[in-house]
Amino acid sequence: MVRINKDLLAFVSRLYETESFNHFFLENYSPKQSLIKQGKKVFSVFIIKSGIAKCYLSEDNGKDFIQEFFSDGEIFGEIETINEHLSFCSIEAITDLQVFEIKGDKFHKLLRSNSKFNELILKAFANKVKYKAIRHGYNQSHTIEDKLLRLMNEFPELLQHISKQDIANYLGVTARSLNRTLSDMGKKFDLM
Amino acid sequence: MVRINKDLLAFVSRLYETESFNHFFLENYSPKQSLIKQGKKVFSVFIIKSGIAKCYLSEDNGKDFIQEFFSDGEIFGEIETINEHLSFCSIEAITDLQVFEIKGDKFHKLLRSNSKFNELILKAFANKVKYKAIRHGYNQSHTIEDKLLRLMNEFPELLQHISKQDIANYLGVTARSLNRTLSDMGKKFDLM
DNA sequence: TTACCGGAGGGACAAATGTCCTTTGTTATG
DNA sequence: CATAACAAAGGACATTTGTCCCTCCGGTAA
């Protein structure tokens, strides 16, 4: 699925326009550029202004698993900043990307001093936990076809932007299996 | 895995002892009792004082998927309270359970008025997102045997407390597959 | 005691998915 | 232009996992 967070984006955009608060920087990234690397320190918190990025985890056996696709308003780097750990995943631009960035210490200050921001972050976290729970449950107990139908239903234009391999990595299957399922589904539709 | 949160438990225990703050209640539950039901309203936030509970999600196809086992200091009901949604999972006692409970509105107040508590909740969230991400990635890209070895490694006494079916539901496989893997592993060890 | 139930274990087969490898078409680059 | 690099597609086969059963056992209610 492609995660967004309109409330947070609106809030951060407003803050970015505010003369007196100048800790957000607007940066640009090109496709395939890396914003956060798994196992490395994280120095900033990021909020997407526009574009699509992938959030993925590289396993010890060499496979990549895509946690989510991120788009407008989605925040990342906040987890590592809050619990002061190294990054547990990688973030990479898929399309051209505009991103608001704020340094870790400024993020902490904002979190403590601005109750509206604090609330937005709490809600963002609550949503992250919830959708991760639902997605994991769904993934474990449904076939590739079910997962694919759901994905195409919720985000029909996905295949335009994203490679087959990324879709496979998002579903947690091989590209071969994804292809097989797609062609089986094609046959089904031909019969209708 | 069995999730715990010592810092949060220490904080809540101290607050519970405090005369001037009397919004935490200590409740007891017996095995198989339900604390939160999927799809229902959530009125309180819960923090475990002792015992083990399971957090699971019932899928549309009748299968249950266990998100986590919860123990000392783990919090739940906070997500639904913060984003004011119905519960997306169920919580059920496995062993005898002692639980601190606080009503939703009091939880909100505490979150706004007590910065230490606010920070503990933020960290709890950060950890939840992180371990969910890692677990989902691991689950998708490893065999049953790998998952089982990891589980027995991190929590060897688990099989004493928890039924085979629950283990299978936690790993996202059928009881039959779990059994097969267990007996295959037994054969392996016999050769060594 | 007897009958019954639910959990654990596992046989036989079916279905889903992965692995390995080949082909084709497109792009990009010297 | 030639050729390398790469994504997409799929054939053939192996492995993993699920489905559908049946049996065995220990508790327990009548």
UniProtKB/TrEMBL annotation, chains A, B:
Under Gene3D superfamilies, the record lists:
Jelly Rolls
Q: Which residues form the Cyclic nucleotide-binding domain?
A: 8-128
List UniProt keywords, sorted A-Z. DNA-binding, Transcription, Transcription regulation
SUPFAM superfamilies xref list: cAMP-binding domain-like
Presence of the UniProt keyword Signal in the record: no
Q: Specify the domain of life of the species encoding this protein.
A: Bacteria
Please report the name of this protein according to its UniProt entry: Crp/Fnr family transcriptional regulator
